[in-house]
Design goal:
Layout: H1 2-15, H2 30-33, H3 45-60, E1 69-75, H4 80-92, E2 95-99, H5 109-118, H6 120-123, E3 143-148, H7 154-157, H8 159-172, E4 177-185, H9 188-198, H10 201-207, E5 210-213, H11 219-237, H12 244-253, H13 258-270, H14 283-300
Parallel strand pairs: 1-4, 1-5, 2-3, 3-4
Length: 305
């Protein structure tokens, strides 16, 4: 179903009046491609400090059995996933970072989530489950950070099964396997409801889950990140540097969503109509581009939570 949707969408885009020439980017995603260190993150320094302490505490606190869990909540595009990846490697050096990929075709979605969580130790070089009940294997492999996001709707429909999965990780996983659960939403009300169903306060207390809440990225941080990324793209593609006015316009329109802002900048700089002379787009054109990206994102990269 999803592959057919993708084919249809790509066909419609190719037949439309909007044509883009995008450079081939290697890596997991457009946001992480341009982030090499902590200074590159478009997240407030106090929030990065809080997350760094949380990650370090989770993986250095003495535990006899079970893996730690961190819960990150906040709006989409607030830098949660990228911050976890960068800070984990910054704190511990060699770290295996693995993310849940929802194939969504021909598989039981809940089963795929369970396989991902319960096989986490395999990514680190050994089985997550010990042969004896209630005992954890001695974990000598590098630290593993599992990022679980983009949860399908079936999780909220049957939350008790997911709660039991978290309990199993907390009591049986390797002690150096950190599970990071990321819940994202476009509105505060939706995010609050999602969190109360999937990871309620009682469960957080029971499993000692550390919780951190992210805010939309401040416009000043968005402009700073776009300026740096614009310089990179300009050098790679031989384009003119984007003007401060253009960057500020994108930052004002993205509503704190850094992913959306980077996508818009990338689109504008690489479009065949990219000769906009570093001026801001007319509101009607800019709104159309923003609407297009939001539609494409919802179809290709559906982020339920």
């Amino acid at each position: 179903m999803r592959s057919k949707t993708n084919e249809w969408l790509l066909k419609e885009i190719s037949n439309s009046k909007i044509h883009t020439i995008l450079p081939k980017l290697d890596g997991p995603g457009i946001d992480i491609c341009y982030v090499n260190c902590e200074d590159d993150l478009a997240v407030h320094k106090d929030k990065l400090k809080e997350l760094r302490i949380c990650i370090k505490r989770a993986l250095t606190t003495t535990r006899v059995v079970g893996g730690p869990i961190i819960l990150l909540v906040g709006p989409t595009g607030s830098g949660k996933t990228t911050a976890v990846e960068v800070l984990s490697r910054s704190v511990f050096g060699t770290v295996n970072v693995v993310q849940f990929l929802d194939e969504g075709i021909g598989y039981d979605e809940y089963t795929e989530i369970e396989k991902f969580v319960l096989s986490s130790g395999v990514y680190g070089g050994q089985s997550v489950m010990s042969s004896e009940s209630g005992k954890s294997l001695e974990c000598t492999s590098p630290i593993t950070v599992m990022i679980l996001e983009n949860l399908p709707t079936v999780v909220s429909e049957h939350p008790s099964r997911f709660h039991n999965l978290l309990r199993l990780h907390s009591t049986r996983a390797c002690v150096n396997c950190l599970l990071v659960l990321i819940l994202s939403s476009s509105t505060f009300t939706e995010n609050d409801l999602c969190e109360r169903i999937i990871c309620p306060p009682t469960l957080c207390s029971e499993l000692l889950i550390q919780r951190i809440e992210f805010n939309p990225v401040a416009p000043t941080l968005v402009v700073k990140a776009l300026s740096r990324i614009g310089n990179i793209l300009a050098k790679q593609l031989g384009l003119k540097l984007p003007s401060r006015q253009l960057l500020q316009s994108i930052a004002n329109d993205c509503s704190g969503d850094i992913r959306s802002a980077v996508n818009q900048l990338h689109f504008q700089l690489t479009s065949e109509r990219g000769n906009w002379n570093n001026s801001t787009l007319p509101h009607s054109h800019r709104d159309g581009v923003l609407s297009l990206f939001r539609t494409i994102g919802k179809i290709l990269y559906c982020k339920t939570y």
